[in-house]
Amino acid sequence: xxxxxxxxxxxxxxxxxxxxxxxxxxxxxxxxxxxxxxxxxxxxxxxxxxxxxxxxxxxxxxxxxxxxxxxxxxxxxxxxxxxxxxxxxxxxxxxxxxxxxxxxxxxxxxxxxxxxxxxxxxxxxxxxxxxxxxxxxxxxxxxxxxxxxxxxxxxxxxxxxxxxxxxxxxxxxxxxxxxxxxxxxxxxxxxxxxxxxxxxxxxxxxxxxxxxxxxxxxxxxxxxxxxxxxxxxxxxxxxxxxxxxxxxxxxxxxxx
Length: 256
Hints:
By secondary structure, the chain is of the alpha+beta class. Helix content is 53%, strand content 15%. It has helices at 7-29, 33-52, 56-76, 78-89, 95-101, 112-127, 143-147, 158-164, 204-215, 244-255, and strands spanning 132-136, 150-155, 175-179, 182-188, 219-223, 230-234, 237-242. The longest helix has 23 residues, at 7-29.
């Protein structure tokens, strides 16, 4: 039977190439490139043994490893898979669908009840050279992040935010999570970004802010303890050296 290649085969090859390229980029950013290459080599060896050489015993053993390995890959790369799915869902063509399924409460947080206490607290914390990390939840829930800290469930207050980040406070090293116009939790642990594009002078708080902004649509605000500068991470990008007025304007825009 002659081997023919049609337009469907070219589309198939193109789709596989695009998928491998994006997986390669994702693994490179997460420093898991060697693991990805190892998995790719194993898959090629499995196909060669089972399809080309038709070695039944070795092929059946590798078949079992592949079937079990799928579960292992999901467990091993759950953060990367979540990031990939979030990036797919955050694409502009799917934002209308996301807004349709999202509750109204999560899209009505852009008001002065949130913005002004946060801005004033950041201004005073920066003036006193007190480090802070504030995360504002939007469409994507942050229950897993809030569960890593201490539940607060209090009204948003400038004084409360300042006290949570006071240097002698047991919760000052973690992040404060704001959700549905309330301070949901404090002392929370955030995923740290391993991106090589982050400037070296930025510390762990900035990497944590970048990590949560890459893995969700949350807004992360950082007050540097060393430089007293205010920064904001949103959608995987930094806004550095913000004045209180700049911060207020950006929050108004992002929360509208």
